[in-house]
């Protein structure tokens, strides 16, 4: 089935790179892609530090909890590749001619965006909690700014992914233009009359049959006329 559906134009239309980059959804994807780089880049590069000169091994700055750093890196990497994947999907979405395939793409976007919003929420709470419990030594102070940046951009990522999920939900509810047309024209009641015949009501008239003109004045036995007897 060809035609406009799920927030995109008619299948097979030309892709305008400039218009595509100006779309709010594209800007949101690029923004959260940058946020993911900031989070896992900050943790990998500056959140593994030496506690002091007597401990040469690298420790996670978040309360020396390796799980906190590993979780932040994992969520950042998942978001990084997820943004690239859905960026490509958005780019070629208009080329998808099947409404069912478009519906699957929108549902996948909705589920992934909601899932990433949840992961970033957990990451923000986890990193913030571990950072509050961290005792800043001279070595840990060197990576304090990177730790705060990872926490801050984890929070910002929650907002962006929630907005992406809401936009995907809006696209899903929009559905196809044809389904909206059918809903507006025919309504939800299957017993409703067909709109192509506005003059007919579809119900037989219950009015009694009217006598033809001049019949009421006729008498059964006119004057002067005798009924013959047999």
Automatic annotation (TrEMBL):
The chain crosses the membrane at residues 71-93, 105-129, 149-169. It is a multi-pass membrane protein. Residues 197-230 are annotated as: Disordered. Keywords: Membrane, Transmembrane, Transmembrane helix. InterPro entries: Marvel, Synaptogyrin. The keyword Magnesium does not apply. GO terms for cellular component: neuromuscular junction; synaptic vesicle membrane. Residues 20-173 form the MARVEL domain. Residues 203-214 have a biased composition (Polar residues). It is found in: Membrane. Belongs to the synaptogyrin family. This is Synaptogyrin. It comes from Lonchura striata. The gene is SYNGR3.
